[in-house]
């Protein structure tokens, strides 16, 4: 059996006392209490020098051999484990047996989910602070209401899901698992990630020593699809139903179908932006999604539809988003025509391209890069010239009456 004693009782051995190296560890020959002893020196680990003494050289060599085997198997730290620690490790491994993991991973998982959360690293709290800042930017006009709503809508699910966790404990794999659970895919997933990336960049600028996990997220797969459009006869039905049941929709529908103007831009336009004399609508930079101004030309049928209901002053569509959503839904349900996401703008782009070509259509839509328009619409416009002519020939019925302001 080895003789164990406190280190403070031992004199420091010099390297010259080394008798040999066995199995990677030194063995020293010492004189203790008038007897010859053999000391195995396993070196320093975690600040503690591990030494053991034996009566014979064979015992010291055997100890070194066992130490090497144990070091190779579980590391030299295991040599210092108490019986209780070894028992804990054995039971823990038994518990983890069916989970294809190990003690190290289990310990990291525990630390991650029990990290101390403070007001400075609380994930939900940081998102709340970030949204408060964006609200201040909204109040000063630095961002638009719809942009703020989008930020809030896309960050709130993360805040709720990771509530009570420290931001540094949330890894890319956690974010991916959450988005997979909620089936975030394609462009929608990219939009969630875009907002999350802006949030993380803001956190880093606050001086919190964390990394941005966004670059480590799973690549987002997007399938490029040819845009769906409405056929001329469908557009005619939609306008006829809107004029009959929801005439307040007509200016909005007209701007979307005959001008290809984005919904969020239409809601910012006023009648003062419509120049009937020169036949154009001025979309100012502050009203444009891309913050660049453009002019949209008013075709003859576009002009006719704008005059199908009273011309007002102020906003072209002064109603709420909920009203717009409800009225559009009722019009589509009444006609049995499936609603297409961005269908009005896609329809305008397709038929305008068929008649006027790429450059003019780019200017009308406010595009600066022809790649997207060329890629998506070149195939759509084949054999569409007649349909395009029919589309821009749709006019209010000859017996249409002027709708009163209270209709």
Q: Could you characterize what this model shows?
A:
- It contains 15 helices and 7 strands.
- The strands form 2 sheets. It has a 4-stranded antiparallel β-sheet, with helices on one face. A 3-stranded antiparallel β-sheet has the order 5-6-7.
- The protein is elongated, with a radius of gyration of 37 Å.
- Helix 4 runs antiparallel to helix 5, helix 8 runs parallel beside helix 15 and helix 13 (343-365) packs across helix 15 (385-391).
- With 407 residues, the protein is α+β, with helices and mostly antiparallel strands.
- It has 3 domains: 7-80; 123-216, DNA polymerase, domain 1; 232-391, Intergrase catalytic core (hpI Integrase, Chain A, Orthogonal Bundle), CATH 1.10.443.10.
- Mean pLDDT is 86; it is low at 3-14 and 398-407.
- The chain starts with 17 loop residues before the first strand and ends in a 16-residue tail after the last helix.
Topology at a glance:
Elements (H helix, E strand, L loop, with lengths): L17 E5 L2 E8 L2 E11 L2 E7 L2 H18 L8 H14 L6 H11 L9 H17 L5 H17 L10 H10 L4 H20 L26 H14 L4 H10 L3 H4 L7 E2 L4 E4 L10 E4 L2 H7 L14 H15 L7 H23 L4 H8 L7 H7 L16
Helix pairs in contact: 4-5, 8-12, 8-15, 9-11, 9-13, 13-14, 13-15
Condensed summary:
By secondary structure, the protein is α+β, with helices and mostly antiparallel strands.
User: What would you give as the CATH superfamily of the largest domain?
Assistant: Intergrase catalytic core
Helix and strand content put the structural class at alpha+beta
**Tally of structural domains:** 3
Largest sheet: number of strands, sense, barrel closure? 4 strands, antiparallel
CATH architecture of the largest domain: Orthogonal Bundle
Question: Count of DSSP helices?
Answer: 15
Shape: elongated
What is the ordering of alpha helices and beta strands? EEEEHHHHHHHHHHEEEHHHHH
Task: Evaluate the radius of gyration.
Answer: 37 Å
Low-pLDDT stretches: 3-14, 398-407
Oligomer state of the chains in this structure:
single chain
Range of helix content:
40-55%
β-strand percent reads: 5-15%
By CATH, the topology of the largest domain is: hpI Integrase, Chain A
Adjacency order of strands in the biggest sheet: 1-2-3-4
* N- to C-terminal distance: 103 Å
